[in-house]
Write a sequence for this structure.
């Protein structure tokens, strides 16, 4: 996870999320054109990291939590797509380095979309999300015979007992410090053009991806109002 480039975004969403859960989304095109009789969407291997926020404010990644959360997200997205009559092609292992790079590009573009469409909107955007991954997505379209792909990013931290004690102690003297936080975003990408046609952002201080039951409402929030 190349989280460094998203640190400013996470910091700002922390300030934004004074409540337990905040979700926002924009749709630039609610009309979808599937070229085949079967509605087929590629689910790119989600970029997911879960970790513990220590008393000193250091995030220690947890590979076991991350692997479980990734599986829950894939299963729940697949089920949600099936309920909409959409066939999901799950890409768990990328077929080329280019596909892997597309996920990293999505991380970067998604961070920019959050910053310049939600947090610090650019006047020139007029509220629209007109971001793209570029025509290189045609490779995925040709390989998987699908018109669209879903890219998912989630970074989730959980407060340790030591951090809780630190927060309580600092609160006693009137100083607030950050606890665990969840930030995620998901994009539906037209593989013919590379354009992001739908985007949703999720920030939360209460979501949990460490068990199947708790993961379901998180994924539901990520996919809220997806126009498929």
């Amino acid at each position: 996870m190349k989280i460094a480039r998203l640190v400013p975004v996470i910091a700002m969403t922390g300030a934004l999320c004074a409540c337990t859960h905040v979700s926002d989304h924009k749709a630039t095109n609610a009309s979808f054109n599937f070229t085949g009789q079967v509605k087929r969407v590629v689910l790119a291997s989600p970029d997911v990291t879960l970790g513990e926020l220590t008393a000193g404010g250091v995030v220690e990644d947890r590979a076991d939590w991350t692997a479980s959360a990734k599986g829950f997200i894939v299963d729940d997205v697949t089920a949600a797509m099936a309920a909409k009559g959409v066939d999901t092609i799950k890409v768990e292992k990328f077929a080329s380095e280019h596909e892997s790079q597309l996920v990293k590009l999505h991380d970067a573009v998604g961070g920019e979309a959050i910053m310049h469409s939600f947090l610090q909107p650019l006047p020139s955007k007029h509220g629209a999300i007109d971001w793209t991954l570029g025509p290189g997505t045609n490779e995925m379209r040709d390989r998987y015979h699908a018109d669209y792909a879903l890219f998912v990013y989630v970074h989730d931290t959980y407060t340790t007992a030591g951090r809780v004690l630190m927060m309580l102690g600092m609160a006693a003297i009137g100083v607030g410090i950050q606890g665990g936080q969840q930030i995620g975003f998901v994009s539906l990408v037209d593989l013919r053009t590379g354009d992001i046609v739908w985007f949703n952002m999720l920030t939360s201080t209460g979501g949990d991806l460490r068990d199947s039951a708790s993961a379901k409402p998180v994924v539901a929030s990520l996919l809220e109002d997806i126009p498929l």
